[in-house]
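This part of the workshop introduces the protein records we will be handling. A learned vocabulary of local backbone shapes supplies the integers on the structure line. Getting from the letters to the tokens is the skill we practise here. As an example, a complete record with its sequence and its structure tokens follows.
=====
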Amino acid sequence: MVGWLERHAQAIQAAGALVMSAAALAAAIFVPWQIAANDRTSREQAAREIYREFLNISIQRPELAAQDVCTLTDPAKRAAYENYVDYLLYTAEQVMELNPSDWETDITARLRLHTRYLCTFAPADLEAMTPAVASLVQGLTLACDSSMTCPRAQP
């Protein structure tokens, strides 16, 4: 057996080097793929958790989900409402990154309830959003006109 190993040492070394090269190549392909898959799964889980938390807030504070911004005179209630909409926009950004076609209808319906407030957004506000969410907001605010703005209190 020792003689056979000595006679075929070069072939065995070449085969070993070939196997090691194949293993290194497989690792170079598989590891980044696995990292990307783990990252995607992690982002999906985080987005679903954010959406679940948004739903919890909507259940706990239903008045925010269907609030008319024009009726808010109390600064604390207005701040709560604005933060609610900001969280809705953040939630929209997170879930729309997963698969926009799956989430667009739901997010649009939720944002539509706040069109009057969204009409107050400046172009800089839209630039701070992801393109998918900015597009949804722009679509909703195309109809912004004087009927969508809050009437000023008469002195």
